[in-house]
Design a protein that fits this description.
The chain has 306 residues and is an all-alpha fold. It contains 11 helices and 2 strands; from the N terminus they run ββααααααααααα. Strands 1-2 form a two-stranded antiparallel ribbon.
Length: 306
Amino acid sequence: MWIADLPFGVMVAGLDTSETPQGGRHSTISESGNENPKEAAAYYANAGRQVLSSHCAMVGLLARKYLEVHYPRWPHWALGALHAGFLHDLGKLDPAFQAQLLTAEPPNTLAGPRIHELSWALTHLAFEPAKVRKLLPSTLPWHVIQYAVFWRQTSTSGPREQKRFANLEQLCKRAGDWTQSFQPTLAVLLADIRSKTGFPVFEVEPRPRPVGNVETPLFRQEQKRTSDEILADPTKKPPQESMDTAIRTGLNFANRMVSAMSTLELEEAVRAWSKSKFLPDLVIERERDDYTTVPLEHTFTQPLST
């Protein structure tokens, strides 16, 4: 069925994707005997139990605001940051990650694909590029959004810049069978994001796309000269590297800001946007790494990138 009121829909056959009160899912068995993803335990973004759809929605909204404030001459950059925020944590739908949140052990980031790697993989498996491009201005390439998703939590120097997988096929093999059965839960997540923000979302293909050996992206060093010189001159067209840097910077800032919110603060921020289009000020008052923070009384942290 097509999700009602989505301008360009999310299609998953036979799936009821109406929003749950907390943006999560419950568990029932449909007439066909299959579990309905709308009816299962909520998906969380981190050990703080932020609802995943609320987290992604607010990261997208604040990343957009960041670009609007700092790069007002290029509104399509803000649109890229919005979608990158919506998509940046798709990989947290992975059952293995959700199970990890129930433990008190630090996550083993070397055991399999990291969240940003899985999220990047789903941007290839779930969405048809030709359809996506029709919904984006010609000045905003789809691969720029994908790049921001892949490198969102990586510093500009050090070993974390190195690619852990040469291509998408390697990544999916390491991730397991889940990468072939994500469509229903992803459709629910995007529907929740659409409901909470009022912005359209991309259409999920009914089956994983056969993408072949798509190479994982190389890290592109930022060009500080473009930020200081070219961006300051409205007569010059900024190179794509500037767009990459700006969107990734806004995404990282928004993710850090949202991850530091309590669950109550996040849900109140989502409601304030839904009711009056109000967003909090762009201020990070405290830090928490939502990828490596684990539940209960144990906290495992790593340096946050800027």
